[in-house]
Request: fold
Amino acid sequence: MNTLFLFDVDGTLTIPRNKIKPDIIDFLILLSSQPNITLGIISGSDYEKIKEQLGENILNLFDYICTENGLVSYYKNRIIHSNSIIKEIGDFKYNLLINDIFLLMSKINLPIKRGNFIELRTGMINISPIGRSCTQQERDDFYQLDLQYQYRKKLVDNLKINHPYLEFGIGGQISIDIYPIGWNKTYCLNIIDYNKYNIYFIGDRMEVGGNDYELSKCDKIIPIHVLNPNDMVSKIKHLLNYL
Reply:
């Protein structure tokens, strides 16, 4: 049976929201050239953000590109699936959610806040207490504060009270993905023929509440937890010795 390596992006192929490094590109080119190995991506980000980080030429190495948890998916550069969160939950529930998000985030006291706190994507909503317009240094500083004070976890815990029909995934350094129940990263298995491959899922947020957790626990895949892109390379090289 063929092997599919299914990669998260932020924290796995790249440092969160950074561009992919040349040595990681070289490794992916080498990996994609191996017989009976197929590459894929599963990310909460939309296509444009992934392209910005990896580059269009690198994306051509991946047969499957499952963006927004697979809600918008591509196979060999052709879109094969799209689903909409607005159509799923309706504007009434969406408006209630947005109002609650603004109310709760207004109560989070941070040293700084920037812009773009809520981003509506096709299949999900992405929110950030500091705002996605922050600089890389501001992003790093928020992440350290979040580890200490659990801003995102507390925000999720509060949102769950009024919106039990939604799931929340904490990912990257600054944001939370919000989507209907079942629309987590396991959704990509509606797109990928898991009977055709041994699927290895490589991600960095496999802890409870992390946006890689549900897929890492799925019995249809083999999870590989990594700490960063260099750790990813090391663990896959080790695995290749046994395949």
Observations:
- The CA atoms of residues 10 and 151 lie 20 Å apart.
